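FAQ
Q: What does a multi-component entry look like?
A: The components come first, one per line:
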Amino acid sequence: MSVTTRPVPQVRIAPPSFKRPLIMTLASLVLGSIFVLLAPADQQTTFVFNLGDTLVALPDWVVSSRLAATGFALAALACSAIAWPINTRRGSLFFPAVGVGFFLVMSFLSWVGADEVLPVTGLLQGSLLLAVPLVFGAMAGVLSERAGVININIEGQLLVGAFLGAVVGSLLANAYLGLLAAPVAGALMGLLLAVFATRYFVDQVVVGVVLNVLAVGLTGFLYSRFLTEDADLWNNPEVLPTIAVPVLSEIPILGPILFDQNVIVYLMYVVVVAVQVALFKTRWGLRLRSVGEHPEAADSVGIRVNRTRFRAVVLAGAVAGLGGAFFTLGSVGAFGREMTAGNGFIALAAVIFGRWNPIGALAAALLFGFADNLQNVLSIIGSPIPSQFLLMLPYVVTILAVVGLVGKVRAPGADGIPFKKS
Amino acid sequence: MSDEFPPDPSTGLSGSKTTDTLHPPDELAGSLTEALRRRVLTMNLAVTLLAVVLALAIGAVLIAVSSPSVIEAAGYFFARPMDTFSAIWNSVASAYSALFQGALLDVDELREGNIADAFYPISETLTVSAPLILAGLAVAIPFRAGLFNIGAQGQMAFAAIGGGLVGFGLSLPAGLHLVASLLMAMIFGAFWAGIVGFLKAKTGAHEVITTIMLNYIALFFLGWVLNQDWFQREGRNDPISPILNETATFPLLFGGGLRIHLGILVALGAVIVVWWMLTKTITGFRIQTVGANSAAARTAGMNVGRVWIIAMLWAGAMAGLAVSMNVNGTDKVVTAGIVGNIGFDAITVALLGRGSPFGVLGAGLLIGGLRAGGLAMQASTGTPIDIVLVLQALIVLFIAAPALVRSVFRLRGKTAESLTIAKGWGS
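Then the predicted structure of the entire assembly, as tokens:
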């Protein structure tokens, strides 16, 4: 008697898509060869690493432009090659992608820096400074959207923070008191967003956009009425001093970039770590995420959905307000009309690019800051590319990243959906 | 998301969606007035008017407490309290009277019989409104498809290149030249917006990110183009294009110092065309269905991605027309600042108009009036024009939260309704 065994149903797993490693390889090949071919063989690129007083003075690195461009392009190609086996094993392509990006940028710098001096450490330090308001804004976005309230209002919160920080810092002649006032202004803005979103259930995108207009109008009105009338009294705060962290600031390269800054930058480190830990390691964070993902389920176990959201949004406003103070107390020292100049929207893009994750949003904000400052540095040393195209670069890169690398991002489940208890 | 929270039928938006589309297309003429009537009925005029009143009241407080004369009089309040009150009254009354006269009719000039000067304010209002209305449509159409178009600014900047090139680069007969320039602006705008729809459809890239990024790219690209030999005016070093040929500009409607030109009629026509497209055509039906529930639309066999692209193409074309109001109308030249802030103001216009074409028309006229009046107010009373932004924001906020307005004025009515146009990130 023969036993007929039924064939085991074969579970066919679709082979992993080769799109992303392919894109990385092609990018390395095409861009790398362009940089190598354009880099002059007979000119030298000087990379400068020294900045400020560090423990060990690093020597400048003088290298043939084409040689360096070739080396970095090959390194980028190697990183993209590593991506293939990782992709087959369905591993994370984060580090290969970072590697490809980093080495392509270095290859690019080797070309445009031919016969020039490239201040590498200065470039990175400037990038961090440009990223500070973006990071605060992105943290505000993460906090609010993880709780289920879309925060288009970051721009407005940054702006009122910058405004009140400058005014209080100037009237009381103390920048640190201004720094205390800035989050209050942001929190008030967040309060408005929270009231309309969780009490009146108004569409959150609508409220956010409208509150931005309100922030521009209010600060602009008061600016014309008071700040320009008597600038010495109203709009003349001292700039926060730089505080070098002992020992740490002496580390070559990293020291001047990370540990020789004003207090807002140090607060930024604290805020990023605090948001990350609070969201993912505490009961408060679990509750906050639960009302953002599935408010009905959260409600059924006794979490007060709208109260949790309310508090999260006000807190987010305070965080953004603090970041806004960087525009006035942290850098320029005076408030200017609409001085946030779209940073809130870039922060919003960083939130989405970073997949609603504090660390991801931080990385995205730093990337935007770097691209912004790269253009600044290149416009100083002179570059073969029209400045407008360099200015476009961060935005083109963001689109490419969203299209190719990030792909379909997934927002918190209930982001933007009002919760009405039935 | 809309299956959990169905749109409230009392907010004209979804109310007209289900009923209007049932009309056979041949009832077009009759149903146009019908739709207007229904819109007026469902707009809940009381709330809208009270929202304006409330916004004006808060604006008055701002004007009063910041007015130098009030602050001075308040310094000796206990000695002569009436001085403070009269200063408050004077500052608020003069500012608002200048605002309204600057938006509608200059009463002093009318008394003296200078008809053209008397009507200058309303001409300004209509001139400023035209691009706002068209750009408002550019935001409103994607709203109906569930897309949030923050990119009108960039679409307008890119469209200005196309419209300008045809406008000063070609020699065509009058009329035909204007049409060609407008068409090219619409094509350029549609292309720029179409990228957003295409990326969303093919890769799922979120339109809020792509539109923000494309705004910057378009502005920088315009800056680059303005420095190229083939676009920059000869003999100039600053970024400015040649002046458009006379044949490619909008004719003035009345002349005599009034800036109002044919463009406002184009804007009016566009409102009607968009209304017709949204309510009377298959395309409009698809756009609204995808906007109401994209999953259901997909199940029903609609190609959701294609609908997104089509909605964005329409939006870009409207943005192209919007910038033409400046390029071919008021400025007659392309500069880096040709778009101004219209693309962002358009978001307010679309929200205030609740995403419907006729709502956008009304909202565009209101915001345009506030803008024109605000300039006059700043010139004559020194009240900063920024107060107009505050009013604009407050009006939309209050209209969006009818429950708040009702509770302030102790009106009875439904409290559940609220404004739902845009959707969350997930689509």
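Q: Is there any commentary attached?
A: Sometimes. For this entry: The CA atoms of residues 288 and 308 of chain A lie 6 Å apart.
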